[in-house]
Amino acid sequence: MVTQDYQTYVNQAHVIRGNDVLFKCDIPSFVADFLTVAAWADNQGNVILGGLGKTWRICMGLLD
Questions:
Q1: pTM for this model (two decimals)
Q2: Number of domains within the chain
């Protein structure tokens, strides 16, 4: 096993309030097969748990 640092990224998404938005977590290919997104967290400390594999559908309203 070789230890290698990596970072994940979520690109900014711009959407009109009340519409849907898609966030994609970019994970480097050399570790993507070994990782699962377990939660999303925003800048205010809110954590969104759950999901089905690589696709999540959140019907909870606003993510301000």
A1: 0.55
A2: 1
